[in-house]
TrEMBL record:
Organism per entry: Paralimibaculum aggregatum
Coiled coil, from the record: none
Entry similarity comment: Belongs to the class-III pyridoxal-phosphate-dependent aminotransferase family.
Highest taxon above the source species: Bacteria
Gene Ontology MF: a single term: transaminase activity
PANTHER family: AMINOTRANSFERASE, AMINOTRANSFERASE CLASS-III
UniProt protein name: Aspartate aminotransferase family protein
Keywords: Aminotransferase, Pyridoxal phosphate, Transferase
Length: 446
């Protein structure tokens, strides 16, 4: 039992019953870090401390925390219609949200399938690819290509595509017929703002080699994070995504962009596909779709994919045997519509683009610290890599905890801090985040 200070009151609270995700449960429960309130750029911890959010939670909340517009929309929706079965029934909110999402995406990504998380969006994209090729008379396309250091969620499909060993080694029974390309971090260009200039086409040609080795006609889809997020902000080199698109077109392979992190303005454009000028066939998304307020994800597809799958089935038949009990939940759709209206009315994607140069300079100011081995930035996203202490990941884990008690939350993967502030941040907020990171680096060095 722990005595926790909550709003000035002290109460006993057992932490043992909750098995926490991606957390060292034993370590956490000795000295818990609990958030009792979020507002704007800040959290309040259970001891009453103020904690600036340097990672938009988990890259979910670009409009800041506890937006009343979203809370009001969800409350009104729950009072009016709290649940509609998504199979053979619908409700107006999902069609409106699909229209809004499609309006943010490049043509011809005009059809949107709703799910409940980024992980579900990946499994859905895998199924869409299989259904499309079967309907197209190419059912022999049973192979998928991903990358080293890739993260595509935690369902079995995403774990099968993953290229991060900790997300695979405990769960060895995964999908067959998945092959990986190299990741794009070569180490040749350190402290790089934006896209590295080297090796883009050469790295992308890994896909062509897979086509020559296995036969391009056996590959269903290639899954790529335009910027690899959870592994530490790995930005694609110049020419890389363009060459991947060329190879996919040459061999009839679907290109899937996993934009669960990069979608909804993180790079200063609505989606990374627009920033890089490369349009995928399928785009997955989640996180900022509802500003993190309610779990939700989505998969957008080209018109031709939707039409091929639906037209291949008999009239009045179910065309795609897939869905979730909570697909397009009314409350989640209400949150999504409210979030997208905030992004539009406050021009938050433009604001992210305008703030990005200041954010980049602030992050790069940390390059003089002895523990910092690399900083990679693009848009409102940065990976700050620190030297490990002999055991990879240990220093990063300790820094994340120390940073929290220094008044700042930042997501760490191993020894890399992933800094991604909300778009409502002011320059003073960026300065505060960077100052607290520097303080924590000094303590880690000492």
């Amino acid at each position: 039992m722990h005595d926790l200070d909550v709003g000035g009151a002290t109460r006993a609270n057992s932490l043992e019953e909750h098995w926490m995700p991606f957390t060292g449960n034993r370590d956490f429960k000795i000295n818990p870090r609990l958030v009792v309130k979020g507002e704007g750029m800040y959290y309040t911890d259970h001891k009453g401390g103020r904690v600036i959010d340097g990672s938009s939670a988990l890259f979910c909340s670009p409009a800041g925390h506890a937006r009343p517009e979203i809370a009001d929309a969800v409350s009104a929706q729950l009072r009016e219609n709290s649940y509609t079965p998504p199979f053979q029934l619908g409700h107006p909110g999902s069609f409106e949200l699909a229209r809004r999402v499609a309006g943010l995406l490049p043509e011809p990504l005009n059809h949107v399938f709703f799910v409940n998380s980024g992980s579900e969006s990946i499994d859905t994209a895998l199924k869409i690819a299989m259904a499309y090729h079967r309907a197209n008379g190419q059912a022999q396309r049973l192979r998928f290509v991903s990358r080293e250091r890739a993260y595509h969620g935690v369902n079995i499909g995403g774990v099968s595509l993953a290229g991060m060993v900790k997300n695979r080694e405990t769960f060895p029974v995964t999908m067959p017929n998945v092959v990986t390309m190299r990741h794009t971090f070569t180490g040749k260009e350190l402290f790089c703002d934006g896209q590295p200039q080297q090796d883009g086409v050469e790295l992308a040609n890994d896909l062509e080699r897979h086509c020559q080795t296995y036969g391009g006609s056996t590959i269903a889809a290639v899954f790529v994070e335009p910027v690899a997020g959870s592994t530490g902000t790995l930005v694609p080199p110049v020419g890389y995504l363009e060459r991947i698109r060329e190879i996919c077109d040459a061999h009839g392979i679907l290109l899937v962009f996993d934009e669960v992190i990069t979608g909804f303005g993180r790079l200063g454009a609505p989606f990374a596909s627009q920033l890089f000028g490369v349009t995928p066939d399928i785009c997955t998304m989640a996180k900022a779709l509802t500003n993190g307020s309610i779990p939700m994800g989505a998969v957008a597809v080209r018109d031709e994919i939707y039409e091929t799958v639906t037209d291949a089935s008999p009239e009045n038949a179910i065309e795609f045997f897939h869905g979730y009990t909570y697909s397009a939940h009314p409350a989640a759709c209400a949150a999504g519509n409210a979030a997208l209206e905030i992004y539009r009315s406050e021009a938050l994607f433009d604001r992210a683009a305008e703030l990005a140069p200041y954010f980049k300079d602030a992050m790069m100011s940390l390059r003089d610290h002895d523990l910092v081995t690399d900083i990679r930035t693009i848009g409102m996203m940065s990976g700050l890599e620190v030297a490990h202490d002999g055991v990879p990941g240990r220093r990063g884990q300790e820094m994340q905890k120390t940073l929290f008690w220094n008044g700042c939350h930042v997501k760490f993967t191993g020894d890399t801090a992933i800094v991604a502030p909300a778009f409502v941040a002011e320059r003073a907020h960026i300065d505060e985040i960077v100052d607290k990171i520097r303080k924590t680096l000094d303590q880690a060095k000492g």
